[in-house]
Design brief:
The chain is an all-beta fold and 297 residues long. The protein contains no helices and 25 strands. The protein has strands at 2-4, 11-14, 22-30, 33-40, 52-57, 63-65, 82-84, 89-94, 103-108, 113-119, 125-132, 135-141, 150-156, 159-163, 170-176, 179-184, 195-201, 204-211, 217-219, 222-228, 236-241, 248-253, 263-272, 276-284, 289-296. The strands form 7 sheets. Strands 3-4-5-6 form a 4-stranded antiparallel β-sheet, with no helix packed on it. It has a 4-stranded antiparallel β-sheet with strand order 7-8-9-10, with no helix packed on it. A 4-stranded antiparallel β-sheet has the order 11-12-13-14, with no helix packed on it. A hairpin with a 2-residue loop joins strand 11 and strand 12. The chain is globular and about 50 Å long. The two termini are 23 Å apart. 38% of the residues are buried.
Length: 297
């Protein structure tokens, strides 16, 4: 992994992998701080090692392992389940006291201090740590599987809050001002390529159509998500919405020709400094792939 200055192309950071099982699959930037996380992508899920994270100071060149940040809990095995807040905090999926992805960790990049923000009850787990304009959101699983109750949570004013506390069908979550957004899927239902997306502000509810699971991301006053154009086909749209407006398509990934075996994947990746969304378009034929990354201010 290489970090370059856009203006000059000069290399600022070279991040080297120390284990062939791992791959860098999360990168977050806030000011002069860069968070890079490597995940074990080769081992079976049940035996994956915990993700490994580093924080680079671009101004000084100093690098700090997440494990060396005072108060920071260990990362879980799921490195990409993380978010950077507009006020310079890194939120991530954490495993505490031997649990499986059972907590949410926070590192303040200004003070380089960490803490545990929230944890699941015994036997439960936390997945899908995601962006919210006030920090981050995530989903509580009452049990280890998808057949149990799932409730959304998030952080506001430094404290956890519950999203749709009376519902058990929450999948993804996001917050935007006073609005709470979530995709829904009934417990025990097989995974679907398209999930209903709703926004709620008190008693006001807006149906925003369908979203692909794990694609919600908040950036620059909008919530973005991915939508399959037709079922499981490779053609995809990137949409965005903010209160007072209708959802709009900001990017349409074309479908490959019908005689092509090429698959294409559109993925919202991260929000930088609270205002720049990074999106990856990956093209693959089952072997080596190419990815085009672009940003939306």
């Amino acid at each position: 992994m290489v970090v370059e200055r856009r203006a000059t192309g000069a290399v600022v950071v070279r991040h080297h992998l120390t284990d062939e099982r791992f791959q860098t699959d999360f990168a977050g930037i806030h000011g002069d701080k860069v968070v890079l996380v490597d995940e074990d992508v080769m081992s079976p899920d049940a035996s994956k090692g915990n993700a490994r994270g580093w924080i680079y100071d671009l101004a000084t060149g100093h690098v700090t392992a997440v494990t060396d940040v005072p108060g920071a809990p260990p990362l879980s095995r799921y490195g990409p389940q993380a978010a950077m807040s507009a006020d310079g905090k890194y939120y991530y999926s954490a495993s505490v006291d031997g649990g499986f992805s059972n907590c949410v960790g926070e590192i303040d990049l200004a003070t380089m201090r960490g803490r545990v923000v929230d944890c699941a009850n015994k036997g439960g787990s936390i997945l899908y740590v995601n962006s919210g304009d006030a920090g981050a959101t995530w989903t509580h699983f009452a049990s280890g599987g998808f057949d149990g109750c799932r409730v959304g949570r998030g952080i506001r004013m430094g404290r956890p809050v519950t999203i749709a506390p009376d519902a058990c069908d929450t999948f993804d979550t996001a917050t935007l001002g006073t609005w709470q957004l979530r995709t829904t899927q009934s417990p025990g239902q097989p995974m679907q390529p398209a999930l209903p997306l709703v926004a709620i502000d008190g008693t006001t509810r807006i149906d925003l159509g369908e979203a692909r699971g794990q694609s919600l991301i908040v950036c620059g006053g909008y919530v973005y998500w991915k939508r399959e154009v037709r079922g499981w086909t490779p053609a995809q749209d990137l949409l965005r919405w903010r209160p007072g407006r209708s959802p709009e398509v900001v990017f349409r990934q074309p479908e490959p020709p019908s005689d092509s075996a090429e698959a294409m994947l559109l993925t919202p990746k991260a929000c930088t400094d609270g205002s720049v969304l990074t999106v990856a378009v990956t093209r693959t034929t089952g072997g080596p792939f190419t990815a085009t990354v672009f940003s939306l201010p």
